[in-house]
Amino acid sequence: MKEDYKKKIFPKVLIIGYFNQSKPTGITTKNMFQKWPKEKIAVASFGSINEIYSQMCRYYYCLGNKEIKYRFPFFNKFNQSKAYNISTTKIPNNIIIKKEKKKKKVFAFRLLEFVLQKTGLSLIKYKYTASHSFLQWISDFKPDIVYCTVEDLNRIKFIIELKHLIGFKLVVHIMDDWIHSVYDYTVIPKFWKKKLKSKFNELIKVSDLNLAISEKMSLEYQDKYKKHFFVFHNPVDFSVWQKSEIKKKVSNRFTFVYAGKINKDTIIPINDFIKQLEKTDFLQNVDFKIYTTSSFSILDRYLKEKAKKYYFGSVEYEKIPKILENADGLLLPLAFNKRSIKYTRLSMPTKVTEYMISRTPIFLYAPSEIAVTEYLKKYNCAYIVSDKDDLKDKLKSFISNSEKRNKTIQNAYNRATKFHEIKIVTEDFRELLISNLNKSKC
Question: How far apart are CA 114 and CA 117, in angstroms?
């Protein structure tokens, strides 16, 4: 850590939630605390220590069978709960690799997933308990602040329970508007809407500081919940993304890259994009590469025989900068159906700032009314297509017009280095936490 950071005051923070490079929430959380002294952070997360371990943190608690159980009629078991102090405990060398399920198991899993989603049971299938071991671990660490993200109904209840039991300062960071959209996927939306609204209101009432992922979310949540929501999005480390010089074109082929998760919100516009690449003669010299930590089976399900052609694997997060920098265009897709728009309209995808700082032009194919489109359009940081009928012509224009691409590159880069650089963001974040510790609820 550099000298200027050594002189600063850092509160002790317990992070409850994802803390890894395989989930967007985990990436953002990890980057938000990258400048923290390792002895001032503790992480309580889900999964094995291999999945969450980082050299930037010393204290871990893997939430497991003592804290999490499946509700009836589910009978799966969780891994053993375990605390780690990296200064005294060795981390296993073997990294857990998730194997692709067999076709029969995949079908059964999809069917169960569909049933859980439709009934709404996916929101309550886990039961969380504050075990004695976990409470003792928290007591030993003595956090000043607990920072959390929440992604299901019972996890909200768990955080509220911990708040009442221990009485810490609570920081809640909302990264997706699932609270106001996930119930639409169920067959009893009014029931789950009421449940979610009631419990989320309770969480916001007991929270001491609230964060939103975008300005659009911040404004809407402030209006709904009458509390301030500060905006913090995924910061990027300039030193990791810095180039010695702008790359020079050495090939006649134009390479598009998509690096991100594959789900219903991204795969449909990706499929639209591929169809245009394949049926337009002008685009015969264009390559498209997909890098994702999502399961290949999801790509295979939607793209079928095309999946293998465009899938270039799951790579370590450290290799992403080079991949983005060496591309000629970066695809940023979000779906146009009503459900996807409702879910994504307040979100700011983790990769947006990474795309912006890469000095590679962004090709945004997404609805006009969502936060990411409004943001990139406002600052002229991307080439934007918000109508499927315009996709073919605008693709041609994007590829053939380097001047048009270059206008957005510098805007995006300047914006990223000025407002999303990790030193700036983490310092603003540190100061906000310090000020919150010294006053009553905001």
Answer: 5
pLDDT tens, position by position, 302-330: 888 889 999 999 888 888 999 999 999 99
pLDDT single digits (tens) 100-154: 445 556 667 677 777 888 888 888 888 899 999 999 999 999 999 999 999 889 9
Measure the CA–CA gap between 76 and 67, rounded to whole angstroms.
Answer: 14
Q: Is 427 exposed, middle or buried (0-12, 13-18, 19+ CB in 10 A)?
A: middle
Instruction: Please give the radius of gyration of the chain, using alpha carbons only, rounded to the nearest integer.
Output: 22
What the chain holds in terms of domains, given with CATH numbers, is 3-235+421-437 (3.40.50.2000), 238-419 (3.40.50.2000)
Say if residues 154 and 175 touch (Cβ distance below 8 Å): no
Q: Are 364 and 383 in contact (CB under 8 A)?
A: yes
Phi and psi angles of residue 267, each rounded to the nearest 5 degrees, phi first: -70, -35
User: In the beta sheet, which residues pair with residue 172?
Assistant: 148, 210
pTM over 0.85: yes
